[in-house]
Amino acid sequence: MARNVEFDEQLAVSKAMDVFWKKGYNGTTMRDLTEAMGINSSSLYNTIGDKHELFVRSLKHYTESRMRAALKQLEPIKSPIKAIEKYIQSAAYVITNEADSCLAIKTTFEIASTDKQVQQIIKADNDFTYNLLISLVERAIEKGEIKVSQDAAMLTDYIINHFTGWHESFIIHKDKSRIKHMAAFLIKQISQ
Questions:
Q1: Is the whole model's pTM more than 0.70, yes or no?
Q2: Which domain holds residue 90?
Q3: Is residue 97 in some structural domain?
Q4: Number of domain units in the chain
Q5: Which residues are CB-contacts of 150 (< 8 A; sequence separation ≥ 6)?
Q6: What is the CATH number of the domain that holds 78?
Q7: Are 170 and 96 in contact (CB under 8 A)?
């Protein structure tokens, strides 16, 4: 009779995600993963699969958690421009307070260009952000809360592209006030 697996898979994936987040996909060893997860390698292979499958599950866990958090945070905000402002402020906060930067951005530059499965997860994450923001931008334009541009797609791309630059800036300079000032300036630009 086969022995039952005696660990919480979701917790194990979450612990693996933390290791990948800190060390990156290529820098993480199977030993790093099994130690963090508190399991042996045969349990990992028998229940989850190999390192790549664990990474895919970890990345999905990360991106889906971010999506749920964004929806929950923005749902009670009635004004579209206020929701956009909150999203920008939250992005600046995450960039300056998450020690290992953004797992999705790190993954994009590490392996997404050569790994189609990972690329699909990153694209789904980016599409979610784009769709969330463009719906807010369109509503803000309709309500007259945004007058700076009537091109919702261009303005949405403009907002999203700031986030990657802020990640890079913070990794290099570790200057929270710099990111906060850039976020405030972006909000001022789109609120005109």
A1: yes
A2: 9-190
A3: yes
A4: 1
A5: 141
A6: 1.10.357.10
A7: yes
